[in-house]
Structures are given as structure tokens and as C-alpha cells.
Design brief:
The complex is a heterodimer. Chain A has helices at about 30-35, 80-85, 90, 115-124, and strands at about 10, 15-20, 20-25, 40, 50, 55-60, 65-70, 70-80, 100-110. Chain A is α+β, with helices and mostly antiparallel strands. Chain A has one domain (about 10-110): RNA polymerase II/Efflux pump adaptor protein, barrel-sandwich hybrid domain (OB fold (Dihydrolipoamide Acetyltransferase, E2P)). In chain A, a hairpin with a 4-residue loop joins strand 1 (about 10) and strand 2. Chain B is α/β, with parallel strands linked by helices. In chain B, the strands form three sheets. Chain B has a seven-stranded mixed beta sheet, with helices on both faces. In chain B, strands 10-12-11 form a three-stranded antiparallel beta sheet. Chain B has a two-stranded antiparallel sheet with strand order 8-9. Chains A and B meet through loops of A and helix 18 of B.
């Protein structure tokens, strides 16, 4: 299981990559592993304002349907449309091609864990 | 794979269009005469002036449509149906004869008690039997399905705590291996659920359980054997711990087929149990019902059971419709009488002294399958299983073959797939429940098919597996989109 050191994580197993005033969200390797084969991703509209903790996407696997929550607040400026045809990108590359949305950061942030703290959290 | 081994083939089976696609103008099965004269002048204004927008078909066209569609079904009477956690056992014909007896089939639920003493006596007897089988003497027959029984049971437990003035107990502990209905039922009963993580052996971890027990715990909901097919061997201690914390233990009886006649949940310390009579006692199910989920409880919970319930006074049976402490009615009548009577017939066919053979043969059949497949498929929790066995796709995954591929290939081989991707705690789960009603030859046909699939993977011959099913009219469907964007209407004009 991989937990890249340059990302932040939530206890709901999202990851966030912050670059300047934009942030990219996805779900962690642990999350995709626990969900199993992902068969569908419901993406949000561009322009939607998210507060930290808002559900912004739905990930459906062969086992379960799960909401994905915003690690930080912001306005959605880009969604990963490739996931509509190939939702399995989340399984094969959860931190890369499996990213879900990109936001322009405005507003606060929920509780974020660094890679080390997330790894500890997973062990508990 | 030799087609002679298996029952699926592409013989005289018919592709079938929708009724609207068959329809042709002016066709009708039954030509009604026009209304002569002023038969009903006050309704004349409502007479339809344009044809109804329903498909026009002759009677044989309509009959063939539905018969052809019925041939697309797979049921326990078409082939093997090892759907784990579902107990798809054969439904003996004699049960159908019993419920069609005119003295039973012709009754109405609102008849006066005095005129239905026979069926009340039968149902009362069934209550006694279920009480004895479960070790929990007080039984309501009302719930119309397993999950309905769970809801009734959780409402009874909540009413029990409330009646003691213990109104803050709202927490329900649910293992992560539970059937999804368990937490849903608890929430619907106004309670809050807390998931408890299973141990490495797939069973409840006592230390994890202890950490969650406090004064807020209303109940623990568990299934025994659990959904991994394993017996909760610490069940006595689990129940003692929950009781010591002031909570009740709710048993999900979905897996009672492993225990019936051999061990009683009430003796293990379980306080409240629903019994899926449509599983354990063979009444037809699948496709949404009807089912029946009677609930059995101990003395402490008995006053809160739903009404109406059947009581015996000397040799007369009375339906009790009001009771101050009861949670009230949860069904429009005493219960799904037709389903309950079939269950009574199944129990009576075995009799008190032979009921244990159900569980013994069910467990034997599951272990037979497990032993034939354990080298070809990964077994996550080794050892004896109960009435169902759990495998995974771990050995096939390296060849790019997943549980879904294996399941779909079984359709080509004439069998209903096992339960897949459940329990959730096991990656690529395949849960196989053969039930006691299958002959060894049938089990062998299934095991042969599974071994051929595993061998095809090892040989790198995976094309058919990825494309399966190849034989049915419909190939691999986009099940996600079918569920999310179902096309349920035919656009008229």
C-alpha cells in the first residue's frame, strides 16, 4: 500500500494535493483497495462551491457505494471526465490518473493528516 | 468444456421482444361487443373516444411472450443455485399441496376467530415449534421478511429498555461482517449503529467488543454462523459480556440452516432472533418475496412483541389484537399465512427427531464443496465451515481473472453463480451455500465446473472467462448503468 509523502489525507480516506491556490482530491490507495473494483464514479458539476466535509462525488464499487468528502473548501474548477469511461483508473492509479476533482481553494479545511499520521491512523 | 457435462445449451430457446414491439394495430385477444343502446347513460360522458395506448396482441402472442420470458429465468427448479447467505433450497411439492387445500386456501384474513380455528391451531403450533427450535419460547409470526423481523426485533428491544426507564440506550453494535440489513433495521428503529471490526479469523474479537460496551449499548446484532460461514465459537462469552453491560443480543437467523435441530440460539445466550422461514424451512423465495420472518424472544422481551398474536385458551385459539406493552401491529394480519403454512409442512415432514438432518446435511455439503475446491481457490479462513463455504479469487487474480468473471462463466455452465463480493470484509469473496437438498452428483457437477475454470486460468486460457457469459441471450451487462439509469418506460408516439 502506498501513501505518498507529498499529499495530505483525511480520516475518510481522501487525499488532497495542494499546489498554490488549487487543490486536487482523490481517494487513497487504502480506500480503493477496501472498496474493490470500482465500476462507477458520479462526478460533480464544475463551479460548485464545496465546504470542507461536503460530499462531492460518489464512488461505486462491486461491493459498496460511498460518498467522497472534500478535504478543503473551494470551488470546483475541473473534474476528471476520464473516470466516466474508465472508473477503474482509481484502482490502478489512485494518486495519479485516478484523481477526481480540482478546486480553487477558498474557505477552510477539515482535519488533515500528513502521510505519517495517516499511516498510523490506518494501523489503529 | 464439454457441453454434455452441463445443463446450459442454446437449444430451442427464443429471443423475445417487448410487448410494444410485438404489437400490431387493431389486434386484440378478446373482442368485446359495443355497448348497445343506453345501457348506462350516466356514464356515457366517460366513454373512451380514442384507443387505449396498450399493445395490441392476440392471445397466443401474449401467452408466448410471457412463457418465453419465463424460460430466461433461472430458479432452483432449473438448476443449482448456491447463493450464499440465501439458502436457496428445493421447495418440496407436498408443501404446495398443503397450502392449496380448500380449507386453507379459501380463508380470508378478516374472518371471525371462531370460523378459522383450524388455521389458528396450525399457526399456534408453528409458534411453539419455532420457539422450541430457537430456544426462545415467545414468537410473533407477523414480520413479512427477514429484515422486517430485524426491525420488529429492534423495536421490541428498544421498547424493553424504554419500559425500564433506560431511555438513553440507543447504541447498537454491528460486526463488519454483518448482513447490510442489520444496521439498516437498527437505524429504522430509531437506534444508532456502531461497526465493530472482525478479528483476523473472521470472528468477533472479544477485546474489540469489550472496548465498545458501555451504558449506551442497547444491543449487539450478530449472525451465527457469521457471514464468513464460521461459527462464533466465543458466543457464550460474547452474550455474557453484552448482558453484563445491560444490552441485549439480537441474532440474525439468516444462517439458522447450519444449526436447526442441533443447537439453539436461545441456549447460547441470544435474546431475540428472527427466523427466515422462507430460507430455513424451504418456502419459495427470490425475486422479492413473499417471505416471512417470525421473531422469537425470551421472557424479558415477550411483553413487547407485536399484536395481533395467537393465544390458546383451553382448546380455543384467540387472536389477541391489543396489549398495552406491545409495540403494536407491524403487518396487516397475523402474518404471511401461506408462507408460514409451507414452513410448518416442511418442519412436520422431518419431525422433531429428524430435524437435525437439515443442518447436518447442509454443513456436510458445504464442507464437501470446500474440500474439493480448497486447493484450486484461496480459502481465507481455513478449517471446517458451517452451511456455506467462502473462497476468494486471490489465486486467479494473477491471471487477470476476477470473482465476477468466475461467476459469469458459471452461467454458461448452467448454474446460478454463488454470492459474490460478500461478506465485504473479504476481497473478491465467493460465498457458496449448496443447502442440504442437493445430491452429491450435483455438487460434483458444480465443483467440476469450478475446477475447470481454475484450470483454464492456470493454462492462461482466460478469453472465455472475460467474455462470459457466452451462451445466454444477453452477454455481460453493464450492471452499474442498468441500476443507475434503468429504462423502465416505452416511449409512446
Amino acid at each position: 500500500m502506498t501513501i505518498p509523502a507529498d499529499l495530505k489525507y483525511t480520516k475518510e480516506h481522501e487525499w488532497v494535493r495542494i499546489e498554490g491556490d488549487t487543490a486536487t482530491f482523490g481517494i487513497s490507495d487504502h480506500a480503493q483497495e477496501a472498496l474493490g473494483d470500482i465500476v462507477f464514479v458520479e462526478l460533480p458539476e464544475i463551479g460548485r462551491e464545496l465546504a470542507p466535509g461536503d460530499a462531492f462525488a460518489v464512488v461505486e464499487s462491486v461491493k459498496a457505494v460511498s460518498d467522497v468528502y472534500a478535504p478543503v473548501g473551494g470551488e470546483i474548477i475541473e473534474v476528471n471526465e476520464a473516470l466516466e469511461g474508465e472508473p477503474e483508473k482509481i484502482n490502478t492509479d489512485s494518486y495519479g490518473a485516478g484523481w477526481i476533482v480540482r478546486v480553487k481553494i477558498n474557505g477552510g479545511s477539515g482535519e488533515l493528516l500528513d502521510a505519517e499520521a495517516y499511516a498510523t491512523f490506518l494501523k489503529e | 468444456m464439454s457441453p454434455t457435462t452441463y445443463s446450459a445449451a442454446s437449444g430451442l430457446q427464443h429471443e423475445e421482444a417487448l410487448l410494444f414491439e410485438h404489437a400490431h394495430e387493431d389486434a386484440t385477444s378478446i373482442a368485446l361487443p359495443g355497448i348497445a343502446g343506453d345501457a348506462c347513460p350516466e356514464l356515457a360522458a366517460f366513454a373512451r373516444q380514442t384507443p387505449a395506448l396498450i399493445p395490441g396482441l392476440s392471445e397466443p402472442e401474449a401467452v408466448r411472450h410471457f412463457v418465453r420470458l419465463s424460460q430466461w429465468n433461472h430458479g432452483i427448479e432449473t438448476g443449482f443455485y448456491p447463493l450464499g447467505s440465501c439458502t436457496m433450497k428445493y421447495n418440496p411439492r407436498v408443501n404446495e399441496q398443503v397450502v392449496r387445500l380448500p380449507g386453507l386456501a379459501g380463508l380470508h384474513p378478516e374472518q371471525p376467530d371462531d370460523s378459522v380455528q383450524g388455521v389458528l391451531a396450525l399457526l399456534f403450533e408453528l409458534q411453539q415449534w419455532l420457539g422450541e427450535i430457537s430456544g426462545l419460547p415467545h414468537v410473533t409470526l407477523q414480520p413479512a421478511a427477514g429484515a422486517h423481523g430485524e426491525l420488529a426485533g429492534m423495536m421490541v428491544i428498544r421498547a424493553y429498555h424504554d419500559a425500564r426507564g433506560d431511555t438513553t440506550r440507543r447504541k447498537v453494535l454491528v460486526p463488519d461482517s454483518a448482513h447490510g440489513t442489520n444496521p439498516a433495521s437498527a437505524v429504522l428503529a430509531g437506534l444508532e449503529t456502531v461497526e465493530i471490526k472482525s478479528g483476523a479469523d473472521g470472528r468477533i474479537d472479544l477485546e474489540v467488543l469489550k472496548a465498545h460496551l458501555d451504558d449506551d449499548v442497547a444491543a449487539l446484532m450478530l449472525t451465527n454462523p457469521n457471514t464468513t460461514g464460521m461459527f462464533e465459537s466465543d458466543i457464550a462469552e460474547i452474550c455474557e459480556l453484552v448482558h453484563a453491560a445491560g444490552g441485549m443480543v439480537y441474532g440474525d437467523g439468516a444462517n439458522l440452516n447450519a444449526l436447526v435441530g442441533l443447537a439453539r440460539p436461545g441456549d447460547m445466550g441470544i435474546d431475540c432472533l428472527h427466523i427466515n422461514v422462507h430460507k430455513t424451512f424451504s418456502t419459495p423465495h427470490g425475486g422479492g418475496g413473499p417471505g416471512a420472518g417470525p421473531v422469537a424472544v425470551n421472557d424479558a422481551l415477550a411483553p413487547f412483541l407485536p399484536v395481533p398474536r395467537i393465544e390458546r385458551h383451553d382448546n380455543t385459539f384467540r387472536v389477541v389484537r391489543k396489549d398495552a406493552k406491545s409495540i403494536g401491529a407491524i403487518f396487516g394480519s397475523i402474518g404471511q399465512v401461506g408462507v408460514l403454512l409451507r414452513a410448518a409442512a416442511y418442519i412436520a415432514a422431518f419431525g422433531r427427531n429428524h430435524l437435525h438432518r437439515i443442518a447436518e446435511d447442509a454443513v456436510l455439503n458445504a464442507n464437501y464443496v470446500l474440500n474439493r475446491l480448497k486447493d484450486a481457490y484461496h480459502v481465507p479462513f481455513p478449517g471446517l465451515c458451517k452451511h456455506e463455504c467462502l473462497l476468494t479469487d486471490a489465486l486467479q487474480e494473477k491471471h487477470g481473472v476476477k470473482t465476477l468473471d468466475i461467476a459469469k462463466r458459471l452461467i454458461d455452465l448452467g448454474m446460478h453463480p454463488m454470492t459474490v463480493y460478500f461478506p465485504l470484509i473479504v476481497h473478491g469473496a465467493m460465498l457458496i451455500e449448496p443447502t442440504e437438498t442437493e445430491a452429491r452428483e450435483t455438487l460434483d457437477t458444480f465443483c467440476d465446473a469450478m475446477l475447470e475454470i481454475a484450470a483454464a486460468c492456470e493454462a492462461g486460457d482466460t478469453e472465455a472467462l472475460h467474455a462470459a457469459p457466452l451462451i445466454p441471450f444477453r452477454r455481460r451487462l453493464d450492471e452499474t448503468q442498468a441500476a443507475r439509469k434503468p429504462v423502465l418506460v416505452w416511449p409512446l408516439n
